[in-house]
Specification:
heterodimer; A: 111 residues; mainly beta; six-stranded mixed beta sheet; B: 112 residues; seven-stranded mixed beta sheet; four-stranded antiparallel beta sheet; globular
Chain lengths: 111, 112
């Protein structure tokens, strides 16, 4: 299947700091989704992106659909303790309807 | 807000037993999915379902697995003869017109 690599794998930051993470794929996608997952729960959709170059915000979260269509970025500004969790990217190509998931970025916010 | 619901939340079974996991997708959604997540790992695609038939399936989705939409609301995943390595969280998901994939809370399967 498609390989989606997320980086960094984990982050430990102080409350109030900004966070950046990215996701790269080996092929072109036409939809990117970003999720947050808390332990024992299902992934919760944060942001959806539909075209190259698109920049979309959801509160303190901002995500971008990379120009090459092989990458996407998520930024969290002014982190707070409840931002703790695992963030996953997911992408879908135009050759099928399945979404491929990234390897995840584990975020720890230190109060 | 509409949501995907899954039952049971946790099932413990003996190796070799059959398991059925149930899902009620969001009502106006047309594509339905099952994903699996082994503890500490990423979310893995199993199968997608559209118009009452399988649309795509991964190499994980072998002959032990089957899906069904027995009525207008439920979407089920059956594992015919469970193995130890089937222990995982199983997530049902669905998409609507905006191609946003919404997940349920998951069913934790433990095979002993």
């Amino acid at each position: 299947g498609q390989q989606l690599n997320q980086s960094p794998q984990s982050m430990f930051i102080q409350e109030g700091e900004d966070v950046s993470m990215n996701c790269t794929s080996s092929s072109i996608f036409n939809t990117w989704l970003w999720y947050k997952q808390d332990p024992g729960e299902g992934p919760v959709l944060l942001i959806a992106l539909y075209k190259a170059g698109e920049l979309t915000s959801n509160g303190r979260l901002t995500a971008q659909f990379g120009i090459t269509r092989k990458d996407s970025f998520l930024n969290i500004s002014a982190s707070i303790p409840s931002d703790v969790g695992i963030y996953f990217c997911a992408g879908r190509s135009n050759t099928g309807n399945q979404f491929y998931f990234g390897t995840g970025t584990s975020l720890t916010v230190i109060p | 807000e509409p949501e995907v619901t899954q039952t049971p939340s946790h099932q413990v079974t003996q190796m070799g037993q059959e398991v059925i996991l149930r899902c009620v997708p969001i009502s106006n959604h047309l594509y339905f999915y099952w994903y699996r997540q082994i503890l500490g790992q990423k979310v893995e695609f199993l199968v997608s379902f559209y118009n009452n038939e399988i649309s795509e399936k991964s190499e994980i989705f072998d002959d032990q697995f089957s899906v069904e939409r027995p009525d207008g609301s439920n979407f089920t995943l059956k594992i015919r003869s469970t193995k130890l390595e089937d222990s995982a969280m199983y997530f049902c998901a669905s998409t609507g017109p905006r191609v946003e994939l919404f997940f349920g809370e998951g069913s934790r399967l433990t095979v002993l």
